Hints:
Blueprint lengths: L1 H22 L2 H19 L1
Amino acid sequence: xxxxxxxxxFFRLTEASHRxxxxxxxxxxxxxVETYRLLHKRRKR
Length: 45
C-alpha cells in the first residue's frame, strides 16, 4: 500500500517536472532531467 502511494506520488512528480521542462529553456532543463534520472535509477534498485 505504501509503495503504491510512493509510486503515484513519484509519477505526479515526474509529470510535473516534464511539464516544467517543456516550458523551460533547454539551458535550464539540465539539472531537472539529471535529478529525475538519478531518482529513477535509485527507485529501480
